[in-house]
Amino acid sequence: MFKTVLFPIDQSREAREAADIVANIVQKYNSRLILLSVIEEPNAEASTTSPMVSSEIVAQLLENARTLFSEQGITAELLERQGKPAFTICDVADEIEASLIIMGCRGLGLTEEGSTDSVTTRVINLSPCPVLIVP
């Protein structure tokens, strides 16, 4: 049913809590698991005081997630992309022909994408496949 599951991750508590649901679904349906982290491209208009997340932090985040799933007997593929998080998540879902996107309800993102419209809301509205939101 869910051949390929895309799990966008960030440093939020919600993403960590969603990992249990991801593991259950991937194991139940013997799905391919893709872990994705998105780094927003630097914007000339962005404040110099807004924190940017380094590639090293993202690589460590992805590796920690891979280890977490590996401990449960799940092989995960890692993807790191740059762009606007919601649009990039949906583009990757389309590219890998994801059957399902699973994400936390209020992820922090790895950058600031807009205070009035969450990454989760945008993904729900733009996704090429079903989206499971974990509260």
In short:
With 135 residues, the chain is an alpha/beta fold. The protein contains 4 helices and 5 strands; from the N terminus they run E-H-E-H-E-H-E-H-E. It is globular and about 40 Å long.
Break the fold down into its secondary structure elements and pairings.
Elements: E1 4-8, H1 13-29, E2 32-39, H2 55-70, E3 76-82, H3 85-95, E4 100-104, H4 119-126, E5 131-134
Parallel strand pairs: 1-2, 1-4, 2-3, 4-5
Helix pairs in contact: 3-4
Q: Notable features of this structure?
A:
4 helices, alpha/beta, 5 strands
Total strand count, please?
Answer: 5
Helix/strand order = EHEHEHEHE
Which bin fits the share of residues in helices?
25-40%
Gyration radius, to the nearest Å? 14 Å
- The low-confidence parts are none
Q: How many angstroms does the end-to-end distance come to?
A: 23 Å
Number of helices: 4
Largest sheet features: 5 strands, parallel
Structural class of the secondary structure composition?
A: alpha/beta
Description:
The two termini are 23 Å apart. The protein has a five-stranded parallel β-sheet, with helices on both faces. It contains four helices and five strands. The radius of gyration is 14 Å and the shape is globular. With 135 residues, it is of the alpha/beta class. Helix 3 packs parallel to helix 4. The mean pLDDT is 87.
